[in-house]
Amino acid sequence: MPSEPQRHDTTNFKLRLTNVSKRYGHSDALVNANLVVSKGECVTLLGPSGSGKTTLLNVVAGLLPPDEGEVWIEDRLATHLPAYERDIGMVFQNYALFPHLTVYDNVAFPLRMRRERGARLRERVGAALAVVSLADKAHRMPSELSGGQQQRISLARALVYEPSIILMDEPLAALDKKLREQLQLEIRRIQKRLGITMLYVTHDQQEALLLSDRICLMNNARIEQVGSPDDLYFRPRSVFAADFIGDSNIFPAEVVTMSAGQACLRGPGGSTLQAATDLALKSGDKVQVMIRPERLRIGTPGQATELDDNCVPATLLETTFLGEATRYYASGPTGETFVSKALAGASSGVAPGEPVLLTADRDSIIVLSPDRDGR
Amino acid sequence: MSAARARSQGLLRLWPLLPALLLLGIFMVYPVADLLSLSFTDQAGRISIQNLALFMQRPVYARVLQSSFLISAYTTVICLVLAYPVSYYLASSAERVRSNLLLVVVMPFWTGFLVRTCAWLILLAPSGPLTQVGVWLGFQNVKLAYNLTGVLIGMSQALLPLAVLNMLPVMLGIDRNLLPAAAIMGARPAEGFWRVYFPLSLPGVAASGLLVFISALGFFITPTILGGPQETMIAQLIIVQIQELLNWRFAGVLSLVLLISALVVYYAYDRILGMSTLVGERAQPGRSRLSRLFDSSLARLGAGALGLIGRAASGMGLVLARLTPAPLRRPGRALQTTLVALILAFLMLPTLFVIPVSFTQSTFLDFPPRGLTLRWYEEFIHSQAWMSATIRSLYVAAIVAVTSMLLGGATAFTLARESFYGKKLLLALVLSPLILPRMVIAVALFYLAARLHFAGTDLALVIGHTIIAFPFVVVTVMVGFQGYNRQYDRAAAILGAKPSRTLLHVTLPLMRSSLAAAAIFAFMTSFDDLNIALFLTGGEQNTLPKQMWSAIILQATPILGVASTVLLILISAFLLASEVVRRQGVIRRRRAGAAA
């Protein structure tokens, strides 16, 4: 179980989940989830569909009672608090604007629930609409607005009452790509400017990388890894994490020696790989190793010898030109396919069918812990 | 030339509409117009308003009109109050539970008003079990039948399914995230319900109210059997004028009054709320018809009224939420289930009382049955009148199913696939038999058939039943077409199939389940009808409902229990069959979806 990094300020948290589990019949929807979200932080729940991210969000929202574990919102134990007493905000994928109320009345709704009225109410609704730049649409009906505008109204409605945390359930999934990218930036900007604490569900890794202070990667009803976008991209812990975010070369290797965080591995074709790792490994362990395509260099056999460390001999299969970069596909000693990506311009001068040598720096070689299900 | 040819081809495309239009034109539009114009002539055939004047002058007619409206209004209110929790419960249930419960709602709807009224007659009679229970509970002067109480019990039970069926689509259309969204923003369950759910469900309530009211206005079975003289309704007067007094002109006047009453209600509804709410579209004050009719003060009044109801409801919700003691504030699902179970019991159980009564040894319809005998079943089987009525009902319904499928199918296919000028108008005409009071259609057709000497024949019955049954087919098949992807037809054509082969091998098989549902609908409509049969059958040529009606009027013996049981069993069998067909269709579609 990946433990929560201690460098986060756990005394100033807005949300804390401890050992939260939820089952439906015999299938697990969420297993032993631990997560802390600090003040002003945006954490995304990223994972494939069915990985438990929406279950986790609904547990936080109070729409789903957990079977085990505790939910803390600020300093209140909220595990069994009804949704309307939790003081949180939520933005839904389909906006969930009330179709019978005007934009103004929609945004005023949570304030009215809090018995706010008069000038103060008007002022706060106006301010919230100004934040999403839709003050001029106050007296329209939601159905008269575009999808992007409706989602911004939905955001205004979630932030108008300054809830302790705003939950976002794939809010941009229904929008087209261009609008989605524009709104991602807008949400990020508003979140930073107002210091909003946010828990954001998405299955889109680009969105997660762009929006998050930290990403909580989920798979199979479990939290797979929690870390900054940088952590998840460059230092994934599992095959799943390495595979889910970005492109990757993943291949098997065996531990030869292990000393002081340095592993010496036997890779494809008997090549020797040197890598830094904090995993507790011992000689003879079978592991998976990951190298990002842009960290895998392709060269002609003359530039280095295959007796050097971190070199794998291969045969070039195909070269594809992507515009800003070139992608090389090569076949390794035991038939596995490697992908290398280099910025365009520096042609390797190798034709398909010719031998090449794949090399990587020591800190680009990531040793992954075996998955729980033994993949 | 080519343009002219294109135009004629354009019209030729529409030939499948012709049979339906001829049927409606000759046997509905013309006779109804004829009957109504009769109101404006005197005995010698000159134009005169003496019959209309008669209607205006005699206070008895004003009283009947008033009681018709009052009974309909009360019935509507009772139905709405009972239907709302049921619909809410159905809308918030899982799909599986919902389709099972829906069957419980739909069954009584098709079990026929006649059988159900018969059951109430047994239960509410002065010596009946419910009266006895009332007396036993210590109430003085319990009188449940032959008065307003009896009529309202019978009519609201009869129309409750209609109210549920029209509320449910609107409630199902309410986004399921809205209540959680309200809760997260701090709305307690009661506030969320009254401020969000209730206002959004109002269009469904309004549509249900309209249809229940209009249907109630044309009722004659329940007030005749369960009411007293005070509860006479306008449709009953029409029957008396024709069957006892043979006064066509005055029947025409009364039909005109019934028709105008219905149309006025429709018109007012359209003006105030907009017809679009009828087909389950959500009324969106900003965009609906209301805004287009904004210059009409009536519409503004309507929008205001809806808004006011919503706001009043919100306020009421707040007060209720504060006044309700904490333990009752969240009526748990158990409490809701109990309430809904009671309402559904009111819908389902009374009908079942006809079964034990059919085994009684006494010669009256009484409960509990005395002794146990099959005597009445023997009598039923050996009675020429009952058996021939049963058989006639079955084969007429079968023929009507076929004719309705041919006419309705052709009409629906053409309307769904072709677009042409005046299509909406045509659709309105085709669906008008669903909207016009059936009594008016029946009387008008009888007037025509009597003069052409084919009243009392099976042909007249088939024509009449086809007119009221085939619009159901049109609606069912057109709804089926909404889920049909025209790409399949295009693919077949590109692969080399002629239109006829495409129809046979692609379109019809894919539409299988809605066609089956439509056929069953048509069959049931004919099998259950009393309006048309009341006039267009005679002597020995009865249908089962007509035979039952005569028996109730003349002499209510336990053989009625037998007939009701037979009807109940036949109709339940058809309904279950149709439900099986429907579910197979759903399963097939799911499988197809999973494969795709």
Protein architecture, described:
The complex is a heterodimer of chains A (375) and B (596). Chain A is α+β, with helices and mostly antiparallel strands and 375 residues long. Chain A folds into two domains: 10-240, 3-Layer(aba) Sandwich (Rossmann fold); 247-368, Nucleic acid-binding proteins (OB fold (Dihydrolipoamide Acetyltransferase, E2P)), CATH 2.40.50. Helix content of chain A is 22%, strand content 33%. Chain A is built from eight helices and 20 strands. In chain A, the strands form four sheets. Chain A has a six-stranded mixed beta sheet with strand order 6-7-8-3-9-10, sandwiched between helices. Chain A has a five-stranded antiparallel beta sheet with strand order 13-12-11-14-20. In chain A, strands 15-19-16-17-18 form a five-stranded antiparallel beta sheet, with no helix packed on it. In chain A, α2 (103-113) runs parallel beside α4 (147-159) and α3 (118-131) crosses α4 (147-159). Chain A is elongated, with a radius of gyration of 25 Å. Chain A starts with 12 loop residues before the first strand and ends in a 7-residue tail after the last strand. Chain B has a domain at 395-596: Orthogonal Bundle (MetI-like fold). By secondary structure, chain B is mainly alpha-helical. In chain B, 77% of the residues lie in helices and 0% in strands. Chain B has 29 helices and no strands. Chain B starts with a helix and ends with a helix. In chain B, α4 packs across α17, α10 crosses α15 and α12 (234-244) runs antiparallel to α13. At the A-B interface, α2 of A face α9 and α10 of B.
Which features would summarize this protein structure in a list?
heterodimer; A: 375 residues; alpha+beta; Rossmann fold; OB fold (Dihydrolipoamide Acetyltransferase, E2P); 20 strands; disordered N terminus; B: 596 residues; MetI-like fold
